[in-house]
C-alpha cells in the first residue's frame, strides 16, 4: 500500500514527478501544489525529558518536530539532571525518571528512550553533552564520561557506529562557557573532534533588551555587548585552537558584523539565528508580554533588520528554533520571574517563509537550505537528494507521460536513509497553538497569518507524520 503524490515538485531542480511513499493505506493525491525537499533539521531544541516532562517530553517534543517538517533534532543538555555523562544519584531532581527506566546517566536514558518507554518516536535525534558538570560552569565535563557515545569513538563495549542517538556536540546552552574552564572545554572539544555550541551571553541582571522598551517597562535591560563579548572571545579561541565554534541564536547587528569578518578570514565559525529574531523586535514585549521574553532577548528593530541581512548575505548558516517549552503559568510570572524562551518547531517554517521569502529577502530554495541542508552539514548528516535518488532509482511511469519520472521510495537502494519533507510553499494558514502537538503553548505567534506549511515528513522512506487530506 502506498501514498502516491501526483505531480509533486522537486525543491531544487523544479522537476515534476510522482512520488510513491509506502503507507498503511492506499491514497492518490493531486500534489501539484506540493514540493518535496530534504527533511528539516534543528540543532537546537529543549525537550525537558528527563526532569521537566510537565513542560515537554521526548514524545510530545518529537511529535511537534515531525509536525513542523523536521526529521532530525539535536537535544540540548539542560535536562534535569543535566546531560553531562555523570551517573545520576537517587534523590537528585529528575533522577527517578532515569533510574526507574533502568539507566544511570541521562545520555543512556535518552539513548534507550524508545525501548524504555515502549514508544516509537517520529523523528531522529542526536544528543548534545554539557560543557561543564551539572551545566554549572565550575568544572569541565570529563570526556571519559561521554566519549563512548560519539559516532566512531566506540569503546567500553559500546558499538558506537550503531548508536541511534550519538553525542555530536558540546554546549552549556543557557549560558556561555565560563572563563575559568574555557581552556579545558576547548581542549575537550578538540580531543573529541566535536564542535562547541555557544550561547553567547554573560550577564547577571537584566530580563529584556536594554533600550527604550526596557525603560518604558521599568525592567532591567541586557546590553547588546553581552553577546558581542562572548562572540569575540570565542572567535579568538577558534583561531588559536582550530576548534569549530557554532554560535547559537545570534541576535545583534554588532555580533553579525564580527562573525562576518571572522568567516571572511576562514576561521572555523558557523552561526544560527532563530525565527523570532527575524520576525520580532523588543517592541513585541509591549504586545505579547513574557511570550516575547527569551535569552538572548529580542533586540531593537535595527538588530532585527541586521539579522535579516545576515540571513540574506549568507553570514547565517542555518535557522534553528531554540524550541523552549514552558507552561503558561510559568510564563505568567512577569518579566522578572518568567522563564526565558518560546516554542518554535511547529510554526518556524511558516513564520520564516512569511518574513524572509514573502518579504523578498531570500528564495524558497534558500529557506529550505537554511532549515535542512545547512543544519545537516553542521550536524554531520548526509541529506537525501531527491534528484540523485531519481537518477539512481526512477522508472518511467507506465501509461503516463513519457517525460515525467516516478520515485518509488519502496524500491530505492537504501530506503532507511531517505528523510524528506513535503511542503506547500504557498499555503496560507493561521498559527493556532491549541492545535500544536507540543505540550507547551508559549509562543507569541498564535493568531499569526503565515505562508508555507509542512504537510508530511518521511523518515527512512516511511511516512512519519502527515496532515495531507486531514484536519490538522
Ligand atoms: Zn541559548
Ligand atoms: Zn537553547
TrEMBL record:
Cellular component aspect of the GO annotation: cytoplasm
Keyword field contains Secreted: no
Domain of life, source organism: Bacteria
GO biological process: purine nucleobase catabolic process; pyrimidine nucleotide biosynthetic process
Pfam families in the record: Amidohydro_1
Gene Ontology MF terms: allantoinase activity; dihydroorotase activity; metal ion binding
Cofactor list: Zn(2+)
CDD domains: DHOase_IIa
Domain Amidohydrolase-related: residue ranges: 36-382
Key words of the record: Hydrolase, Metal-binding, Pyrimidine biosynthesis
Family the UniProt entry places it in: Belongs to the metallo-dependent hydrolases superfamily. DHOase family. Class I DHOase subfamily.
Function noted in UniProt: Catalyzes the reversible cyclization of carbamoyl aspartate to dihydroorotate.
Name of the protein in its database record: Dihydroorotase
Amino acid at each position: 500500500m502506498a501514498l502516491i503524490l501526483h505531480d509533486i515538485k522537486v525543491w531544487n531542480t523544479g522537476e515534476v514527478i510522482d512520488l510513491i511513499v509506502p503507507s498503511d493505506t492506499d491514497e492518490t493525491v493531486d500534489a501539484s501544489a506540493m514540493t518535496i525537499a530534504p527533511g528539516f533539521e534543528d540543532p537546537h531544541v529543549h525537550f525537558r525529558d528527563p526532569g521537566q516532562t510537565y513542560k515537554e517530553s521526548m514524545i510530545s517534543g518529537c511529535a511537534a518536530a515531525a509536525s513542523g517538517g523536521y526529521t532530525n533534532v539535536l537535544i540540548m543538555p539542560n535536562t534535569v539532571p543535566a546531560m553531562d555523562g555523570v551517573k545520576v544519584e537517587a534523590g537528585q531532581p529528575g533522577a527517578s525518571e532515569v533510574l526507574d527506566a533502568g539507566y544511570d546517566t541521562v545520555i543512556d536514558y535518552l539513548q534507550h528512550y524508545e525501548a524504555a518507554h515502549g514508544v516509537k518516536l517520529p523523528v531522529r535525534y542526536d544528543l548534545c553533552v554539557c560543557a561543564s558538570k551539572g551545566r554549572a560552569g565550575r568544572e569541565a565535563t570529563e570526556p571519559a564520561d561521554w566519549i563512548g557515545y560519539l559516532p566512531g569513538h566506540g569503546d567500553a563495549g559500546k558499538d558506537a557506529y550503531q548508536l541511534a542517538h550519538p553525542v555530536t556536540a558540546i554546549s552549556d546552552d543557557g549560558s556561555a562557557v565560563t572563563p575559568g574552564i574555557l581552556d579545558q572545554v576547548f581542549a575537550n572539544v578538540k580531543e573529541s573532534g566535536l564542535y562547541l555550541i555557544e550561547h553567547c551571553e554573560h550577564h547577571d541582571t537584566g530580563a529584556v533588551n536594554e533600550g527604550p522598551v526596557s525603560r518604558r517597562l521599568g525592567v532591567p535591560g541586557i546590553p547588546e555587548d553581552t553577546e558581542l563579548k562572548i562572540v569575540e572571545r570565542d572567535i579568538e579561541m577558534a583561531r588559536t585552537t582550530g576548534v569549530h565554534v557554532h554560535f547559537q541564536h545570534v541576535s545583534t547587528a554588532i555580533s553579525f558584523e564580527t562573525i562576518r569578518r571572522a568567516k571572511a578570514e576562514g576561521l572555523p565559525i558557523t552561526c544560527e539565528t532563530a525565527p523570532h529574531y527575524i520576525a520580532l523586535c523588543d517592541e513585541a514585549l509591549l504586545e505579547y508580554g513574557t511570550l516575547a521574553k527569551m535569552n538572548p532577548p529580542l533586540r531593537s528593530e535595527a538588530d532585527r533588520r541586521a539579522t535579516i541581512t545576515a540571513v540574506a548575505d549568507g553570514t547565517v548558516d542555518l535557522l534553528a528554533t531554540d524550541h523552549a517549552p514552558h507552561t503558561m503559568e510559568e510564563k505568567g510570572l512577569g518579566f522578572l520571574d518568567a522563564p526565558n524562551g518560546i516554542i518554535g518547531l511547529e510554526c518556524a517554517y511558516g513564520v520564516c517563509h512569511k518574513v524572509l521569502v514573502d518579504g523578498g529577502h531570500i528564495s524558497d530554495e534558500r529557506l529550505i537550505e537554511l532549515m535542512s541542508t545547512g543544519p545537516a552539514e553542521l550536524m554531520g548528516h548526509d541529506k537525501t537528494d531527491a534528484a540523485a535518488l531519481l537518477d539512481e532509482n526512477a522508472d518511467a511511469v507506465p501509461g503516463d507521460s513519457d517525460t515525467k519520472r516516478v520515485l518509488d521510495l519502496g524500491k530505492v537502494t537504501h530506503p532507511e536513509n531517505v528523510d524528506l519533507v513535503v511542503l506547500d510553499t504557498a499555503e496560507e494558514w493561521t498559527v493556532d497553538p491549541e492545535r500544536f502537538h507540543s505540550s507547551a503553548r508559549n509562543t507569541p505567534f498564535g493568531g499569526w497569518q503565515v505562508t508555507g506549511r509542512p504537510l508530511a515528513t518521511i523518515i527512512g522512506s516511511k511516512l512519519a507524520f502527515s496532515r495531507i487530506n486531514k484536519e490538522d
